[in-house]
Amino acid sequence: MAQHNTHRAAGRAVTPVTHARLAARGLGGAAVLGTVLVGSAFAGSGGEAASAAPATAPAAPATAPSAPSTAPAALLDSTQKLRDGSRGAAVSDLQSALNQHGADLAVDGVFGKLTRGAVKDYQAANGLQVDGVVGPETRGSLNSGSAAAISGGGTSAPSASSSSSSSIVDAARSALGTPYSWGGSSLGGMDCSGLVNYAYSAAGIDVPRTSSQIANGGRSISQSQAQPGDIVVWPGHVAIYAGNGKIIDASGSKQQVVERSIWGSPTGFVTYR
Question: Residue 273 and residue 266: Cα distance in Å, rounded?
Fold first, then answer.
């Protein structure tokens, strides 16, 4: 009996170990040390391994490099007014700039009919005064494309100031009696276009040299719009409008500079202001 009791006691001693091993298996093989569970957490279904760390988020795509800004094709002279008959490097720069805006001009430095037409097309497309003359507004738009020049919804023609009108007419009157001299432009002798150049120069306004260039280079206006200092045009002849139906011109028939009523049938009136 003593041996039997000893055998049963030994059997009872083994039982806790067996239950511990079974418990460990029931916990998915996790080791138990005291009351601490190592290697697994009590999940709803029990014994699943902890999920892996989330994958690293993809890097943000690199920002595409911005396109480099395009510099103006050509910078036009800051003071020179260009119109029909103008020549030189400034006209070449103008033609190059117009070509960048869709024109198809020969870059020859000569401001002719095609260049004038391209200027008018540019002015019309960009809300500028359409006169075929490259003055401060058209030049500024070509140089910088400023918002005011491009989206201003049209630019009204500047009104002729009383000071410029007076300066032009006064200078023309100062030449009354000057002998007519073909090709001249001084008080020693002048022709019709020479008188216009002389009077406009006194007002600080640049105009072409010949009568045809003067007639084609300005902005056409009606007689009712003409103000003192504007120009009256006949075929091959130009005169300065003095107001009240009067003109001042270097008359070939009278062989001097005279002031008189508008004669014959003028073909037009033009302004450079």
Answer: 20
Q: Measured between alpha carbons, how far is 155 from 165 in angstroms, rounded to an integer?
A: 21
C-alpha pair distances (Å), 26 with each of 13, 34, 49? 21, 16, 14
- Give alpha helix (H) positions in the chain: 2-26, 89-99, 113-125, 136-144, 147-151, 162-174, 192-202, 211-217
Cα dihedral 131, 133, 139, 145, rounded to 10, equals: 30
The answer to whether 239 touches 267, Cβ cutoff 8 Å, is no
Residues 6+ apart with CB under 8 A from 179: 188, 189, 255, 256
72 vs 142: CA distance, rounded Å: 8
Question: What's the predicted TM-score (pTM) here?
Answer: 0.46
Separation between Cα atoms, residue 85 and residue 112, nearest integer Å: 6
CA angle 160–166–169, rounded 5-degree value: 105
Q: What is the pLDDT along the chain (273 residues), one digit of tens a residue?
A: 444 444 444 444 444 444 444 334 444 444 343 444 334 433 444 444 444 444 555 555 554 444 444 444 446 765 678 888 888 888 888 988 898 888 889 999 899 989 988 988 887 788 788 888 888 888 888 886 543 333 333 333 344 456 688 899 999 999 999 999 999 999 999 999 999 999 999 988 999 999 999 999 999 999 999 999 999 999 999 999 999 999 999 999 999 999 999 999 999 999 998
